[in-house]
Amino acid sequence: MGTRLLGVLVTGNNNALLVPDTITQDELSRLRSSLGDFNVVVVRSRSNALGNIIVANSHGALVYPNLEDEVVKVIRDALGVEVVKRSIGGISSVGTVVAVTDVGGLVHPDATDEEIEFLRDLFKVPFRTGTVNFGVSFVRTGLVVNSKGAIVGNDTSGPEIARIQTTFSGL
What we know:
Layout lengths: L5 H4 L1 E2 L4 E4 L4 H11 L4 E4 L6 H4 E3 L3 E4 L5 H11 L2 E4 L12 E3 L4 E3 L5 H11 L3 E3 L13 E4 L2 E4 L5 H11 L3
């Protein structure tokens, strides 16, 4: 879309990268060229901020509760995982409040014990509540994480970084 807001628009797991149908043909060509054989799937939906409404790892995916059923099927087929529609902590844009890898997950502090247990069961990893950028509850606004490491927002405090490190290092 000619924007630099990639995290808001793109999501995926080890099986595929999901991009909105608003991606330009040039952007899609460059992305596919850069990723080689990696599966890049264009998702046609009323919602184009896929990173805000989908969160996934190699075991499961959590999506915006009002996402179209046909889009849920595309996600399930592309990512190769169970896909569940649900909000977390009263927030339907689940991609903003949950960060997950195949090692661990961090979730908005308002998530209930039942929601945390649900996340553990879906993603098959331990979860902790946490914040970024000195108390921001929308953890994905200040955190990019994968199996290689994490990048945090400039205002993320030492205790927040320690929690992120232990969450995603499997300690």
